[in-house]
Structure formats: C-alpha cells, structure tokens
Specification:
Length: 606
C-alpha cells in the first residue's frame, strides 16, 4: 500500500529515488512523485500513473536535481488517482510522503480550514502536511511529535523542512519503514529491496520512533524525543533476489524459485528425520497442549491456512478454524489461553492480520506467525515466529510465499500429529521424508509447461469459469481461482464439487471452462460424478489429477497429469499448474502480470 523512499548523500538524488521507487512499485502504481532539495528550495515533480509516466513527464519538464529528497508510489485510498492527489504533498516549506491512512483526517481538516488553510487534494495526507505547517515554530522534532499526538491511524512518513536542507525526518506507526545507511549516505524505504543496490545495512523503526537523516548520518529518537541507539540489521539476500534474472516477469521467476524455497524452509526444520519447530519455542509438549487452533490471514495466505486446516484435522485430529483476518477482528471470536492462533503473512505487515494478532494476544491465546519478511511487524509482535525462507516476493500475485506457507503447515501438522500420538515415529518420518521430495516433483512439473500454455490458450477469451474440487482439492482450488482472477481479470469462482448442484450449476453453459482438481484418491470417484454433471451441461472440463488416474475420455477435455506423491501433499504440486495457467492466461490477454490493476502487494490499510 504505497511505497516511500528517501535519500541523503553524494549521489544524484533523483536517480536514486526513481531507481528505489521502481523496486517498490509492487506496492502501488496509481501515481508517483518525488521532492528534492535543489539550490536550497524544495522542488516537486509528480504524475498520475506508473513511474514510467513520471519519468516521461520529468524528461519533458526537465529533471530536478540535488542530493536529498523523498519519493512515493501510490495505491489510492482517499481520492482518485490524479496529478493533484499524487504525493509528495505540502508547500515550499514542508513537504511529505505518506503510506497509510489518517483516520481522523476530516476533524483535522476542519480545524485547519478554520485557521484559513485551503486544501487542493482529496487526500488524508494533505492534512498531515498542513498540520505540520500549522504547528511549525522552527523545531522539526517537536513539531513532528506534536503532530503525532493529533493524528490517528497508520503512517510511514518522510518529511523535508526547507529550513533544514539535506535533511530528512522519518517516522512510522503500523506501516512499515526502514532506515538504511551506506558510506556517507542514508536512505528510508518501505521495504529493503528498494535500497539493496546501495547497501545491505538497515534499521527497523519502531512505533513512533523518529529518524533524522542528515548529510548521510542517521540519528534516532524515541517517542519522547530522547536520542536512542538502534541495532543494525544486515539483509540476508542480495540484488539478484530482487531482480527478474532473465525471466519475463517476477511471477514466472518466483514460480520457478519454489523448489529452492521449499528446501530452504523445510531442511533446517528436520532433525533425525522428524519435524522440529523448537527454534521458536514450539516443543512437542507445547504443541499438544492446545485445544483449538485458529488460522487467521488474508488472500493467498488464508488459502494456505485452508490447506493447513484439512491437513491438521486429518492427521492430528485437532479442530482448526480458518478466518479471513478482516472478519476475525470484528466477530468477537471466542479465544482462551489453551488456544493457538496462527497468523500467516508474506509481508508481515498486512493491517488486518496484524490487528487480528493483537486481538488474539489481548484475549490470552498463544500466537504463532508464519511470515516471510524478517523483522516485519507481525513477526515482531507474535509470541513465536516461523519464518518462511522464500526470499523477496515481488510479484503482486503470490506464488512462492503460498508454497512455503504450505510447507510450514505440513511440518506443524506432522509434529502435532506425532506429539499427540496420532501417528507413529515411522509414519511421521515417512511423511517428513515425502515432504522433502516435493521440490524435485515441482521441478519436473516446471520442465513441461506446454499443457498449461495450451489450457491458457483455451481460457483466454472466457468471461467466467469455475474451479471445483473436494477436500484438499477444494481448499487448493480456492487459490487457483484467486490467482487466475487477480491477474487475468477473468471472473472465476471456486466451489466444493458436491455443492455445485445446490445452485451454482445453473451458471454452467455450453463451452464454459471448469477446472476440476482431483488429486485425492479417496474422493476421486465422487469428484468424477460432479465433473460429469457439468460435462453433461456442456462445460469444457480441464482436469488436474495424478498422471496415472483413470479418467474416462468423456469426462474431461484436457487432463493435466501430475507425478504421484502422497495424496496429503498433492496441494503443493497441484498448485503449480494452476499458477502457470493463471500466468500464461494473463500474458496472452496482454495484462501487466506483476502489477495487476487495482492491487498492491502489501496491504497496510484495513
Ligand atoms: O502479505 P500477506 O501475505 O499478508 O498478504 C495477504 C494478501 O494480501 C495476499 O496474499 C494477496 O491475496 C495476494 N495478492 C494474492 O496473490
């Protein structure tokens, strides 16, 4: 949800800002802008659209130039995407970029209007810029603190004061922001990949801490204005991980990174052939102490939780409730200290998931997060964290993060089932070893994308389609459907195959594509019956199943056969063709695969 950057140092700041912003464009691409100190004046250039539109505009107008500046790429919340609503906001004296939502902006706006301020944009951000201006009496630090006392909501702010050229002030609450430092230069950014080209050293700003970047030096202050020392972190991945590396899109690259991501996530958590999660304090004894498990997440991460539920309930026989975080927060869930709440998030910054975590803690439940981004808010605030080691996921459509989230759920399920005496040591070792074979199987599937490309060519002109499955296949098809709709813009729904005849089958017309996932052999015949029901009504059926499944030629038009592994683990391999089908369909439709319309990678507003 919006990306912000800032730079102070010897380099040409405009180049650094545009380059860093391009690494954050996955966070929003409704508009972009920068503000730079040029000859002691704050100069701003901004434009509706992507960073490429901003560059085109700057090249026509002449680029501003300097050594200190801030930049922004926007995902619109308050006010349509337009030049006026683009960041930076402010005036010749104080200029800001903002990520987040100021919830009480209307009240502040009224207060400022009474004082004679006139607003140009429809944004909440402009109220912060004007409030800073209103309170400013020469001391930036105390002005910022006064403003923080007034504003409610979430924010990461980069601020420049004309009186202090070559200096940036930065502060955050509930929106991510890092401060990075190189030799005689310093940066702010919403995410580490934005600055990796320049430095790997970074600091994590805590709630309402203020950073001051002055001529390449960085100082930190707590929320009372007292100077503090902070621990420096070193990014454990490099530029290549955040580059396309020869692939046409980040999404395709990330799909291909899945085997490595699974290995890196699973291998360190196996000891003597058994799953071991003690790194975060999750011992077998602790695992078996829970009466109920809740999984709370959004989007793809929630879909990983759905697979987790089926697997845990199937082999560990512990009830698991999966909730969309935005619902969990407001449904007054019944929680107690014998419950475990698992929060799943790639970014670790998703606003609803973060608030769900805080709610679970307030209610006394144990919290465990499954998070990809190290040091993110969800990881830091949960009682226990199991990091997924997928490396940076840049494409808005999540693929490898889902895959590693599944891996962790399998490890939890095996450990839980063993701890509770539901499976023997031998069975636990067998399942764990089978999990370790998954990367090879994914590699094999990736070697032959032809079937998926063909399916994409059959879907490209469709307006609607259905995904159906039973049990684990149903949980998985939810993710297949989301993937397709978010990047191809084709409407699709995922349905429990047996539920179709209770209403939704009326949508099936001649030629409508139906993707049937049938990897669970105990349910295969039942799913086939449902497939025949849609086939009889003219559907074009694409079936994803084991390569040796016995599929009648009149049941499916296209069959994608997958190498056979334990049915329990099939979601990890069966998701790959679903990801590829979505990817190739999006490419054929000429869409911007990595930056689908209306979306942003990191959803830091509720
Ligand atoms: O960073 P998170 O995993 O918390 O993000 C959750 C969802 O916003 C995310 O999975 C979203 O659904 C993706 N665009 C799906 O591809």
């Amino acid at each position: 949800m919006c990306g912000i950057v800032g730079y102070v140092g010897a380099r040409e700041c405009t180049e650094v800002l545009l380059d860093s912003l391009s690494k954050l464009e996955y966070r929003g691409y409704d508009s972009a802008g920068i503000a730079v100190f040029e000859n002691g004046e704050i100069r701003t250039q901004k434009s509706k659209g992507k960073i490429s539109d901003l560059i085109e505009k700057m090249d026509k107008e002449g680029r501003i130039s300097g050594h200190c500046g801030i930049g922004h790429t926007r995902w619109a919340t308050h006010g349509e995407p337009s030049d006026i609503n683009s960041h930076p906001h402010g005036n010749a004296n104080i200029t800001i970029v903002h990520n987040g939502i100021i919830e009480n902006y209307k009240k502040i706006k009224e207060f400022l209007e009474k004082k004679g301020y006139v607003f140009e944009s429809q944004t909440d951000t402009e109220t912060v810029a004007k409030l800073l201006d209103c309170f400013y009496e020469g001391n930036p630090l105390s002005t910022i603190q006064r403003v923080l006392d007034e504003i409610e909501g979430s924010y990461a702010l980069g601020i420049m004061f004309k009186d202090y050229p070559n200096r940036i002030y930065a502060v955050r609450k509930d929106s991510p922001l890092i401060v990075a430092s190189g030799e005689n230069e310093a940066f702010i950014a919403s995410d580490v990949p934005a600055v990796l080209k320049y430095t790997k050293n970074f600091y994590l700003l805590e709630q309402d801490e203020i950073a001051v970047l002055d001529n390449g030096r960085v100082e930190f202050y707590d929320d009372h204005g007292a100077p503090i020392r902070k621990e420096m972190h070193i990014a454990d991945f490099d530029m290549e991980a955040a580059e396309k590396g020869g692939y046409a899109h980040f999404m395709l690259k990330e799909i291909h990174e899945q085997p490595t991501a699974v290995r890196t996530t699973v291998t360190p958590r196996i000891s003597d052939g058994m799953p071991c999660l003690e790194e975060c304090g999750m011992t077998y004894d602790r695992l078996k102490s829970y009466n109920n498990i809740f999984v709370v997440a959004c989007g793809t991460a929630m879909h990983a939780g759905l697979v987790g539920k089926y697997v845990i309930e199937k082999i560990a026989r512990i009830p698991v409730t999966v909730d969309v975080a935005s619902e969990f927060r407001y449904r007054n869930p019944i929680l107690c200290s014998e419950d475990l709440v698992i929060l799943v998030s790639q970014s670790g910054e998703t606003a609803d998931t973060l608030e769900a975590l805080r709610l679970a803690k307030r209610n006394g439940a144990d919290t465990l997060s499954i998070v990809n981004v190290k040091g993110s808010s969800i990881a830091r605030e949960s009682d226990m964290v199991l990091y997924t080691h997928a490396g940076p996921e840049i494409s808005v459509a999540s693929t490898k993060a889902y895959m590693v989230q599944l891996s962790v759920f399998y490890l939890i399920a095996f450990a839980l089932a063993y701890a509770d005496g539901k499976i023997s040591t031998e069975e636990c070792k067998r399942l764990t070893s089978e999990l370790q074979t998954v990367p090879e199987v994914i590699d094999k599937i990736l070697e032959k994308p032809g079937d998926c490309q063909y399916v994409a060519s059959q879907l490209v002109n469709s307006e609607n389609l259905l995904y159906i499955g039973r049990g684990l296949d149903y949980a998985l098809s939810m993710e297949g459907s989301l993937k397709l709709k978010e990047i191809s813009y084709i409407h699709s729904e995922s349905y429990a195959a047996g539920e179709l005849k209770h209403g939704t089958i009326s949508l099936v017309t001649s030629g409508m594509p139906v993707i049937a996932v049938a990897t669970q052999r105990d349910l295969f015949d039942k799913t086939i019956s449902n497939v025949k029901e849609v086939k009889a009504r003219g559907a074009k059926v694409i079936m994803v199943t084991h390569e040796n499944s016995d599929v009648d030629s009149d049941a499916a038009d296209i069959v994608i056969g997958l190498p056979t592994i334990d049915d329990l683990l099939m979601p990890m391999t069966a998701v790959v063709p679903l990801q590829l089908i979505a990817y190739y369909t999006s490419v054929l439709r000429g869409n911007d695969v990595d930056k689908p319309r209306n979306l942003a990678k990191s959803v830091t507003v509720e």
